């Protein structure tokens, strides 16, 4: 490499330590990027790439962003998953000898951002760490914006890690550099997170208070990996970090990755939006804290009946006293995000407006407590007891910060009069000075008889007396000193005026400085209250989520479920999301019954009749019950399930390189390997992704296995009609079907679930609904009739050949060979002729009218 200037040497030595980040190198009013950083940043940020030393043989690629607008550029990079190292000049360029000293003052990463504009207020922003031990993995989640820390031990291998991490709002994950490459790749590609490395895992005594409850060496090591990383990169106070909570997975309903995705709990499968998810329906929280807590609950429903009943009791209270609930909602609305405020206090980046918000939020706390006391449930009283905050905090903020402070904390106007004597003296001095000037203006007007005479101020000249040119003749010669001439006025000063000016400016400067100091003191004082604020935030969020459950339960007509050990009975069950997007009253409710004698329901019925909907609504109802919400039906006696497994829809995990059928088998395998008698399995049209016989054989084997070995409660929908015979051999399997009727050649969906198997398949009718050309539909119906003429036994003998044919979907049961010997092939020849004619047409020589004629002829032939 060519010889570098001293500054470039400095750049390169700093960059060496931040290889995986964009280095924003401060040069005057710009942050500059060089070399590969510049090339990549220019592309990502759509800014111009230039060259440094363009005359030299090896010019250096370079680009830059203005210092004052850097935040948006940084935000863009962080959102794309990159890291940005901010390198500042750390000495005054005027006094520096040689190259100005520079240092990285902060490494901004997706998992460590604190800036309000870079955070989604309704979602946690986790940085996680992953540590591998002999037989387990330990995951740690930390949200720097709220101070929350959680630890999860995964005993079931790498798969368990991916299932656990999936759908968590994780932006960055810290791993050991020894983690195998392919696993690192999986983290990046399947979870879309930024990877970071930390090999130092020794426990630092500074963290002691965060780890008091951790007695396992593994947990300490895992937590240390994350804390060391944060400490090394952030170089800031971690004063608001809370004690680590160990999440016992066995205390929560476990949802594997496929179920989280398929059931669209927090986002929809395809669009990845909240709209259309269960969260979208249930989120009637009014605070951002509550919204975040609800999302966490949906990720981890409960297993403990007492805990569930406690939540339900509170929801019932909120449900029945809606006037009080309404008032409570109003009160909660004016409580700001205490959790994140506490985080920003710790990081030292709150301004006076934030503290003002803190104050007004805390002022609502006594009212909140009173409101809770108006409910009759003992649980409410318990909650009210936990709602407490030291009145001293409000006192301090009340006496110190003005009602409507500016955003900047460096320009004064923040602190109230009477808070600090010294500040009051400065302010008096400045006010008195200004008063004196106002009086001077009056006096001079009278003395000179110039009504338009005025005293003004600007930054360059300070205070001046201004007289318009038209009035100059009235001004006695030598009364003032001339300072500046404008087109239509003259500006003057007097020694007295300048003396006062000096006093005023000095007082103002000092008071601004003092205000800043006072503000920092107040902010520091607030730090001591952080644990208290966090505790309060937790209770407030809890109240908010549960009032939200009551609100949605009332507006959507949900009922309180009960729990049983053996029998599940839901009367008139509905799908909580679909009923919301349909017109009122058009969703058809259905009963669901499962117990030890019928623990597998085999569901048949035409496409589009509502099989998938029925299955999903059961899973969603179960989850709603186990997070403590009322459920969409007339009455519900539920079981407490330990796990839910799903195989629904055709979701390709192409990013992970898995085809539909592979995903299908992985999902099925995951369920079969892990389900227990207490689990719920939903298998929707399994075996569809392969050829008919393969698929049917697999489906049957899976059902038998579940029936005989697992006995999990299972809903199994299928288009393989033949499977309904299984009811003859499997005593605990029950056939049900979705009713559809044929009306004048069209299928009418009634969406009603009935006992017994469905009597026919309606695939072609659905194709009709989808508006396929009518000639095509007629043709398909004809083929179907021909095919149905072929005997089933004949088809069966062809099973082996069939296993190698392509998927045939709904039309079921025939071999390709067969098709060719049917009249089908004749008509294919005929069709081929039409197609050939079509191909031979020279469109450019046809007039529109000719084209119409040709088309008419072709259609006539095709319909023959
Ligand atoms: P299948 O799985 O049998 O092909 P789906 O469950 O996907 O059918 O349902 C197809 C469509 O039918 C749904 O998108 C919904 O609009 C409608 N549907 C399903 N169940 C009901 C119901 N119980 N009441 C009203 N409409 C329903
Ligand atoms: Mg379906």
Automatic annotation (TrEMBL):
Pfam families hit by this protein: MutS_I, MutS_II, MutS_III, MutS_IV, MutS_V
Record has Transmembrane as a keyword: no
Top-rank lineage group of the source organism: Bacteria
GO terms under cellular component: cytosol
Alphabetic keyword roster: ATP-binding, DNA damage, DNA repair, DNA-binding, Nucleotide-binding
Matching SMART domains: MUTSac, MUTSd
InterPro entries assigned to the protein according to its UniProt record, in alphabetical order: DNA_mismatch_repair_MutS, DNA_mismatch_repair_MutS-lik_N, DNA_mismatch_repair_MutS/MSH, DNA_mismatch_repair_MutS_C, DNA_mismatch_repair_MutS_clamp, DNA_mismatch_repair_MutS_core, DNA_mismatch_repair_MutS_N, DNA_mismatch_repair_MutS_sf
Gene Ontology BP terms: mismatch repair
Protein name (Swiss-Prot/TrEMBL): DNA mismatch repair protein MutS
């Amino acid at each position: 490499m060519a010889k570098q200037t001293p500054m470039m040497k400095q750049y390169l030595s700093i960059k060496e330590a931040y290889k995986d980040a964009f280095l924003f190198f401060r040069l005057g009013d710009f942050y500059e990027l060089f070399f590969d950083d510049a090339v990549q940043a220019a592309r990502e940020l759509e800014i111009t790439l230039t060259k440094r030393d363009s005359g030299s043989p090896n010019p250096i690629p370079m680009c830059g962003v203005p210092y004052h607008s850097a935040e948006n550029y940084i935000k863009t990079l962080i959102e794309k998953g990159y890291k940005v190292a901010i390198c500042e000049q750390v000495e005054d360029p005027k006094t520096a000898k040689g190259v100005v000293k520079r240092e990285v003052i902060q490494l901004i990463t997706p998992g460590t951002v604190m800036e309000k504009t870079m955070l989604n207020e309704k979602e946690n922003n986790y940085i996680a760490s992953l540590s591998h031990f002999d037989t387990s993995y330990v995951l740690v989640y930390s949200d720097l914006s709220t101070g929350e820390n959680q630890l999860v031990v995964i005993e079931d291998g790498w798969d368990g890690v991916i299932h656990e991490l999936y759908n968590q709002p994780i932006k960055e994950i810290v791993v050991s550099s020894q983690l195998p490459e392919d696993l690192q790749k999986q983290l990046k590609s399947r979870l879309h997170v930024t990877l970071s490395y930390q090999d130092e895992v020794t426990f630092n005594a500074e963290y002691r208070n965060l780890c008091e409850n951790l007695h396992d060496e593994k947990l300490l090591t895992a937590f240390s990996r994350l804390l060391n990383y944060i400490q090394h990169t952030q170089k800031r106070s971690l004063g608001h970090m809370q004690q680590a909570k160990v999440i016992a997975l066995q205390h929560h309903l476990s949802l594997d990755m496929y179920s989280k995705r398929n059931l669209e709990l927090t986002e929809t499968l395809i669009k990845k939006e909240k709209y259309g998810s269960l969260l979208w329906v249930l989120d009637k929280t009014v605070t951002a804290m509550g919204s975040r807590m609800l999302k966490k609950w949906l990720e981890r429903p409960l297993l403990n009946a007492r805990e569930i009943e406690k939540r339900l009791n509170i929801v019932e209270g909120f449900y029945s006293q809606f006037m009080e609930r309404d008032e409570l909602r109003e009160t909660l609305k004016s409580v700001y995000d205490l959790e994140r405020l506490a985080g920003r206090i710790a990081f030292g980046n709150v301004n006076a407006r934030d503290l003002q918000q803190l104050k007004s939020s805390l002022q609502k706390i006594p009212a909140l407590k009173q409101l809770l006391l108006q409910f009759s449930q003992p649980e409410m009283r318990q909650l009210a007891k936990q709602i407490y905050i030291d009145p001293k905090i409000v006192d301090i903020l009340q006496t110190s910060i003005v009602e409507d402070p500016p955003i900047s904390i460096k320009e004064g106007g923040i602190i109230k009069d009477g808070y600090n004597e010294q500040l009051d003296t400065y302010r008096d001095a400045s006010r008195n000075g200004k008063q004196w000037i106002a009086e001077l203006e009056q006096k001079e007007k009278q003395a000179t008889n110039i009504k338009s005479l005025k005293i003004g101020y600007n930054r360059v000249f300070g205070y001046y007396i201004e007289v318009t040119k038209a009035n100059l003749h009235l001004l006695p010669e030598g009364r003032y000193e001339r300072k500046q001439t404008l087109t239509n006025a003259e500006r003057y000063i007097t020694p007295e005026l300048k003396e006062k000016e000096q006093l005023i400016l000095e007082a103002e400067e000092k008071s601004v400085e003092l205000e800043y100091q006072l503000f920092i003191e107040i902010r520091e004082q607030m730090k001591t209250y952080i644990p208290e604020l966090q505790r309060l935030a937790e209770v407030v969020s809890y109240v908010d989520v549960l009032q939200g459950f009551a609100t949605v339960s009332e507006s959507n007509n949900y009922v309180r479920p009960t729990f049983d050990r053996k029998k599940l009975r839901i009367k008139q069950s509905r799908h909580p999301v679909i009923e919301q997007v349909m017109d009122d009253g058009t969703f058809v409710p259905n009963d669901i019954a499962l117990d030890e004698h019928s623990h597998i329901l085999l569901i048949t019925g035409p496409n589009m009749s509502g099989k998938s909907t029925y299955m999903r609504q059961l899973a969603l109802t179960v989850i709603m019950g186990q997070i403590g919400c009322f459920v969409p039906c007339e009455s519900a006696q539920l079981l407490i399930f330990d796990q839910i497994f799903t195989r629904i829809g055709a979701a390709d995990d192409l990013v992970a390189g898995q085809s539909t059928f592979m995903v299908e088998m992985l999902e099925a395998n995951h369920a079969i390997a892990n389900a227990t008698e207490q689990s719920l399995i939903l298998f929707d049209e399994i075996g569809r992704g392969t050829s008919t016989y393969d698929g049917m054989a697999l489906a049957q084997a899976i059902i038998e296995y579940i029936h005989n070995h697992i006995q999990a409660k299972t809903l199994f929908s299928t288009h393989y009609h033949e499977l309904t015979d299984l009811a003859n051999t499997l005593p605990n399997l029950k056939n049900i079907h979705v009713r559809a009727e044929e009306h004048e050649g069209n299928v009418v969906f009634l969406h009603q679930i009935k006992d017994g198997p469905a009597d026919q398949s309606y695939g072609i009718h659905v194709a009709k609904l989808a508006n396929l050309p009518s000639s095509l539909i007629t043709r398909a119906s004809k083929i179907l009739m021909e095919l149905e003429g072929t005997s089933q036994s004949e088809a069966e003998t062809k099973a082996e050949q069939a296993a190698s044919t392509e998927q045939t979907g709904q039309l079921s049961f025939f071999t390709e060979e067969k098709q060719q010997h049917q009249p089908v092939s004749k008509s294919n020849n005929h069709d081929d002729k039409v197609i050939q004619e079509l191909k031979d047409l020279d469109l450019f020589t046809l007039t529109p009218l000719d084209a119409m004629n040709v088309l008419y002829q072709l259609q006539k032939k095709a319909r023959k």
